[in-house]
Amino acid sequence: MPDVNRGNRPLSPFMIGPYYRPQLTSVTSILTRITGNALIVAALMIVWWLLAASTGPEYFAFANGFVTSWFGDLVMFLSVWALWYHTLAGIRHLIWDNAKMLEIDKAEMLGWMVIIGSGVLTVFSVVVLW
User: Fold this and answer.
1) Residue positions forming the annotated binding site
2) Total structural domains in the chain?
């Protein structure tokens, strides 16, 4: 028998916009996955640079020119941020795995702590290590 109540069903959450507002915890969770994959790209760039150093001076000069260019510096800066963000988000998940701070207000506070903490630690790392 066909469903005659189609108009009374709730809408799916895929309809982002006026129908669905992403929560901070879902956005930070998605960003954790993105930063994890971005760290793989940065690690491959560092491995490429090290392999170029062992290959010869001409190829190393090419690879070093790329890594120390403005684009390479940007990738490395964002990698430092991604590393801090991913680390702090991992600590947040360890807290949740112990069934702590699962209330909505505390979970959102942890999300803001991850976002702000990763920014502060990134700036601190770049200033100290530069």
Assistant:
1) 86
2) 1
Domain carrying residue 109: 25-129
Residues tagged in the binding site annotation for heme: 86
pLDDT tens track for 51-62? 999 999 999 999
Distance CA 13, CA 15 (A): 5
Distance CA 77, CA 112 (A): 21
Q: What is the pLDDT of residues 62-120, one digit of tens each?
A: 999 999 999 999 999 999 999 999 999 999 999 999 999 999 999 999 999 999 999 99
Residue type at position 126? V
CATH number at residue 99: 1.20.1300.10
